[in-house]
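2024-03-11 09:14:02 INFO queue: dequeued item Blue-light-activated histidine kinase, len=337
2024-03-11 09:14:02 INFO validating residues
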Amino acid sequence: MSERKLSKRRQKNHSAARLAAIVDSSFDAIISNDLDGTIASWNKAAERLFGLSADEAIGQSIHIIIPEDRYNEEVDIVRRLKLGEKIDTFETVRMKSTGEPVQVSITVSPISDKRGKIVGASKIARDLSEAKENERRLRLLMREINHRVKNQYAVILSVISQTAARSHDIQGFERRVRERIMGLSHSHDLLSSVDWAGVELRSLLSHQVKPFNGAGEFRLSGPDMLLDANAVLNIGMALHELIINRVQFADIDRSSVDVTWEACQGDTLDEPTFQLAWRETAIRNPDLLAQGNGFGSLVLRRIVASSLGGVSEWKIIDDVLTWTLAAPLSKVKIRDA
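2024-03-11 09:14:37 INFO prediction written
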């Protein structure tokens, strides 16, 4: 044999070995079968995807991985290959050795012999399970975002309309709307920073206080508690109104605020209750909220409690202001947190 022929054979063997290595290391299942449907090759990715070893699969009918209601797909593949038609990648369902269906995309290529006659098919099957699950989660997320955005539009519209009804001039209206929407935005920032997975009540209060210099002393007391998104937005709105009221109408030099919360057993044994209390001293204008003509009054008396399925109370005795909220713990706390 001449040196030239030996060189060509070595090159051919090297190319075949390299192709085999590529096929075997592919993340996608690569399978070949003849036109009768007998499996001729089966790579490691096919073993992982379908749960059958190469020894178990090779020599078997391709139907071992095709659900009965999809047999017609294989018939159509063979028909089109024989006609020389190009087969576009398509999505379908195949079957694991356990009988469990698996969503895949399949790319089909013809296999020809030395004379160019089509003798079989090479198929690349890509597992779409994770991609489909991600699509499902994305759809759920988009629906949730849509729901939350609509809720926030409703809150913002309420803020605008209620503030407008109680404002005496455009400057005051603009300032209060901006402050209230910024308060909502602080709660949104917190939720976004944790992918809407829940916010600690302490963090919520600190975040609401941060924009106001000279808001005075705050003492916090209560267990660690992760609030769900709805509770963060509503309790955040209440805290914003209380802080604004404090900055405007409390004697900061003499005043202090105690914020306490707890989870306790309610009136019924199966309904634990979340209780929050804001106690503020040295109020300069103790009758302000008692007049009930402000948006803050609406938030603290009705909106927050209604949104959380609870009750709230506003009391002023002498110069001490107390606001309390009681709601079902299930409406406030992240489950199992």
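2024-03-11 09:14:37 INFO annotate: Residues 3-127 form a domain with the Beta-Lactamase fold (CATH 3.30.450.20).
2024-03-11 09:14:38 INFO item closed
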